[in-house]
Amino acid sequence: MSAYRPADIGMPLAEVDTPCLILDLDAFERNLDRLKESLAGKSVLLRPHAKSHKCPQIALRQIALGAVGVCCQKVSEAQALVEGGVNDVLIANEVVGAPKLKHLAALAKQARVAVCADDAGNVAALDAAAREFGVTLDVLVEIDVGANRCGVEPGEPALQLARKIAACKNLRFAGLQAYQGAAQHLRKVEERRTAIEAAVAKVKGTTTLLAAAGITCEKVTGAGTGTYLFEAASAVYQEIQPGSYIFMDADYARNEWTESGIPRFEHSLFVWTTVMSRPSPERAIVDAGLKASSVDSGMPRVADADGVEYVKASDEHGVLRLNGAAGYAVGDKLKLIPGHCDPTVNLYDDYVCVRNGWVEAIWPITARGAVW
Q: N or C terminus of the chain: which is more exposed, having fewer CB within 10 Å?
C-alpha cells in the first residue's frame, strides 16, 4: 500500500483530508511561551515530558526555549528522540528485560540518557548492560509519592536502593524521580495542592536520609501540567516534567485553574473530522471513532460548538448529538478536542501544523508506536 498523507504544505485547512491530527501553531506557541513565563524567577529546570508529543521537532522547540532536555517513558521513545537530534533524555520509568537494557546502554553512547529504578535486581541488570557497552548510566531512584504505581517507598527503602546504585561501577546515582501522577487530574485546586504537599513531605524525608548517609542527591524531578507550580515552589524539586500543557486536552480542561497560579493553557491539538452521515435531524456521524481519538479519559469535545456533543464512538464512527444546532451537513468538517492527548497522538503518523487556516508544516510523530 502506498504512503498516503492527508495534507500538503500550503494547502488550505478546508481541503485537508480526514481524520487527521492538526496542530494550531499559534496556540501551541503561546502555550510554550506561557509556561516559560510562568517559571520566571523560579529556581527549577524544565524537562518536558515527550510522551505527550513523541516528536523531535516539538522537543527541539522546547529545548530552544530553555528546557534542559526531555523525558519519555520507553527506550524506543528515547531512541526516536535522540535520532531526531535531542541529546539529553530521561526515561522516567523502569526498563526491564535484557533486549531493552542493551538498547538503552547502546543509546547512552549517542546521548546523555538517564533511567529510573525501583528494584535491586534491576539495578544489577542495568550495571551489567552498562558494563557490556562501556558506558556509565545515570540512574534515579523512583519513589512512590502517592500515585501508587511504580516506585519504592520513600525513606529507608529509597536510601537502600540509592546505596546499591552508588556501589555499582557502571552506574551513577543521579537523584530521585518523584512524580505524583494521580494528582494531575484532581479537579479542585486545593485537592491538587494538598496531594503535592504530601508528596513534598515524602521527598523531604528521603533527601534528609540520603544526606545523613553521605549520599548526594543532585536533583529531584517530577511534576505535571496540573501541579507543576506547586512543585516549583516547594524548594525541593530541582526539575519539573509537564507534558500536556502544549496541547491541553478535554480532560485537563475540566480541572479548576483559578487560584492555582498555573496558566490556563489553550487547546492547540485537534482531530480534524468529516460528517459522513446525517441520519436524523438530531444526529450526525463523523469519520473519527475509536481509531482516531482515545476515549479513556472521556469522549472528545466538539470545538467551537455550543451544545453539540460527541456521545458515542465505535471503531470508525463518532456520533454527535446536535441538540438543535444547525449545519453539520454531509461533507462538513469540524475539529474535535481529544479527551486524552497522549494516546490520541499515538494513533497518527504526523501533525498537520496549521496557521491562519493554512498548512504550514507537517511534523512526523516518529515515536508513534514506540512501546518497548
A: N
